[in-house]
Design a protein that fits this description.
CATH superfamily: Flavin prenyltransferase-like
Structural class: alpha/beta
Number of domains: 1
CATH class: Alpha Beta
CATH topology: Rossmann fold
Radius of gyration: 15 Å
Distance between the termini: 38 Å
Order of helices and strands: EHEHHHHEHHEHEEEH
CATH architecture: 3-Layer(aba) Sandwich
Number of strands: 7
Strand content: 15-25%
Amino acid sequence: MNWQGIVVGYAVTGSHCTLPEVMPQIRRFVEAGAEVVPVVSHSVMTTDTRFGTAEQWKRELKEITGNDLIGSIVEAEPLGPTKRFDLLVIAPCTGNTTSKLANAITDSAVLMAAKAQMRNGRPLVLAISTNDGLGLNAANIAKLLVTKNIYFVPFGQDNPHQKPNSLVARMDLLLETCEAALQGKQIQPLLIERFRYA
């Protein structure tokens, strides 16, 4: 697929352990020719963890994309009327973000960007990373699975013995999922095996 001229909003939320896995995927969009605009949650903007500092992640996002970060509701609000994004990705998409999106709560830059994308009837791609995907968040995931213009990166249980409710997307399938979403299709299979028994 030719990504030249396509503007991808790439939203990052606070599944901090997944951030090292998604950075190379952002680079894939840039290398394919897309313009990538980073959108970040408050958690990513402000929280230092054992996986990296907020400043490190912000710097890396700007270096990869060449664009300034959108980090507030005020900065994200114009995305609706300007129709800036051809496609919006939320990866990683936490359980917190999933639940708020499914229940029409808009209290972050990421959720404002998602609201704008849905308002404009354009594709929104979710790459979930949540410890309660098969718990209380299962209902929210189900709501989003049947919502028009929302697509999922294939996902599965990542650690069924120690975290039986945990679901994580195959981040390496982001680009392929987005190519399908731009054609109005959900990449298949959606439910995959992330964990193999010995």
